Amino acid sequence: MANEKVEVIDDDLNVLEVVERREIIKRNLKHKSFLIIVKNSQGQYYVDQRKKTKKHIL
Q1: Which residues are CB-contacts of 56 (< 8 A; sequence separation ≥ 6)?
Q2: Domain range for residue 13?
C-alpha cells in the first residue's frame, strides 16, 4: 500500500501526474477520493469513516 500510485489532478479533474501516495501527503497535492453512504429500508444512513488511528505512511 505504501507504493500505491495516485493521480494528481487540477481543478478541472485533469490528471497532471501520477505519484506515490506518500508524495500526495508530503506535498499536499490534490487527488480524487470517495465517500460511501448507505441508506437502509428504515431511512437510516451509514457513513463510512476513516479510523481515528489511521496513520499516513511517509
Answers
A1: 22, 25
A2: 5-45
